[in-house]
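Lab notebook, bench 4. Still working through the backlog of constructs that have no structural model yet. Next entry is a single chain of 396 residues. Request: give me the structure tokens for it.
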Amino acid sequence: MLSLDKVFNAQTVLKGIVRETGLVRAYGIAPECELYLKPENLQITGSFKVRGSAYKIAMLSDEEKAKGVIACSAGNHAQGVALAASKNGIKSLICLPDTAPISKVEATKGYGADVCLVEGCYDDAYKKALELKESEGYTFVHPFDDENVIAGQGTIALEVLNDLDNIDAIVVPIGGGGLISGIAYAVKKIKPSVKVYGVQVAGAPSMYNSINAGKIECLPSVHTIADGIAVKQPGENTFNLVKKYVDDIAIVSDDEVASAILALIEKQKMIAEGAGATSVAAVMFDKFGLKGKRVVSIVSGGNIDVTSLSRVIDRGLLNSGRSSSLLIELIDKPGQLKDISRIIADCGGNVTGVHYEKGNTESINGCYLRIEMETRDYNHVKLIVESLRKEGFKIV
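Model written out:
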């Protein structure tokens, strides 16, 4: 059974295995509240997952250790199991969805595990892992629906409560629910006045839907940049713990997550993956009404593929008005581009791309000019558009 004693025991067992990540005061991200970040993206393996998997493996019998362990994961749990198994001299096999970022697949192999790529998402990898568990006799290390794993994740709460007094709320990403279950259980047992809020993405709201329905529900599919929490169905243990101990759950969009990743890079010089940035996105976009409160956001991981990071940054720049595109209808004659460039430059914008397009315009001599720009924000874009219109240009 999950108990506070088990969470404290996990803290003792994990000393020397995991890194105690100190809270970081965040400025300029959510100015209306006092925001602190718990940077589990700086954890060994780049994610909190090593806590739960290492404690679970440490609690195995000698017979179970001899047979080896198997796990399934979108990537972060895989690395945690691989590292913990290697430290114990145990064989590990990890089933990953074939959509997992290459960086996570290679990192898992690097920590000493064998990898089995499975077509589909996390839930497909889960089914394959259970099949191999039965046929090969491995011990299955569940990524979230296991009391020892949940207790390991709960050690984060002990560190947060020890680091900071007078906390009003802790905001936690939710995938299958192991992280928030451990944190909420420990927090409510030690300091029940602290609110615990969960965050899911719009493309994978399995726990949100289940809690609202009053029963576990399975999503037909998931689609989000937050691959670490793209889970179709929460676990039984985690569902019951979330229902009992979590105060509220909110939904954020992929665009809000992208903006949070960009804000963490610019304001904190901190790299977070999509799942890790959901808790920051929820505070940034005021999902819980935390004005004037002392808040801790759990940045659960930082294992984002460089290619994905580039796309997310581009998306974040567009969403914040820092990058913009204008389509202008023109009469095709010399000097037009010169005038447009002058107006944009006078407004302080920077042209980064120009593309000439012929099309169905009102005039037979018409054309389109697509301008890519670097801008400060949406007000800056509005100023440029108004200035162009004032000089007679038609913005499509």
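Notes after review: The mean pLDDT is 93. The chain has 15 helices and 14 strands. Flag for follow-up if needed.
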